Amino acid sequence: MKCNTASYISPFFSLGACVHYPMDSEEVPKDEQNYNPSVEDVEVEDLEKMKGDAIGNTMYSERWVLQILIKFTKLFDTDFDDELEGEFCSLWDMTVEKDVVDFLLKHDILAIMSCALRPLCRKDNSRLTEIIVGIVGNLCCNEPVRTELSQRTDLIFSLIGLLEDSDPQVLTQLIRLFHCCAWDLVSESVTSTSPHWLEGPINSGQLTNLFAFILKSSTNEELICAVLEFLNTMSSLEVNDKDFSQCFCTAEMITGMMDGWHQLFNSWTPEDEFPSKILTKAAAHWTTTLSAFAGHEGGRELMC
């Protein structure tokens, strides 16, 4: 997921222009007068400096990224203005690069994001919260990040607490983050014998109640599609003979599924094509989820 913003502060390298200030000829040693380095000499020198500051095989600057991380640590006494939003969004965009993710892990990015999510730092600013959760969500596309996240109860507590947020953009990024982590419930590479942290809000019904409410009341297409994608994945998972679709199959959820379909496809008829690839995918997720609900007796009774 990438961040869209009108303000953009480039984290890329740039070749600085050579500025020459006029000097009196008497101030310059005679053997140095009329000397001007060639463009090739300047570019080679700058390129060597750039190479030493690059993150992995990218053209992103280590120094620039570290400066942005420092700004995250100072949010408690900093105004979140357009310039800062642009810089944070640039970092969000960069987190699709594995080399950048590895670099951020070495500099305790999850600890920094955990602090940034504290109310004192984000100050109930929905846009800032969306960016922070979006960054963590992108990072969680990488297994080493998810492994480290599972050990950071402070960050997990903050993320689960955001389920009570009412901002659709924040919830969309949060659900996408949870969706990335859901695959570890069945991953053969995850060897931990303790329950996955995501099982808590699933088994307690917290996610079920939230998703049912979103499907019944939200008009945000992106948020509804994110919920349907998560439900589709969870309805396809079985862990130790546990069918996760049963956790989500409630009367409120089935009502919400109907309302969500109506919201997305109000003017659609079976004779029409779906209006977009995104909605085609959403329709498939909707169908798969209801089919999973109908796969067990309790679900069939609720749907009759």
UniProtKB/TrEMBL annotation:
<comment type="similarity">
    <text>Belongs to the SAAL1 family.</text>
</comment>
<dbReference type="GO" id="GO:0005654">
    <property type="term" value="C:nucleoplasm"/>
</dbReference>
<keyword id="KW-0539">Nucleus</keyword>
<dbReference type="InterPro" id="IPR052464">
    <property type="entry name" value="Synovial_Prolif_Regulator"/>
</dbReference>
<dbReference type="InterPro" id="IPR016024">
    <property type="entry name" value="ARM-type_fold"/>
</dbReference>
<dbReference type="InterPro" id="IPR011989">
    <property type="entry name" value="ARM-like"/>
</dbReference>
<protein>
    <recommendedName>
        <fullName>Protein SAAL1</fullName>
    </recommendedName>
</protein>
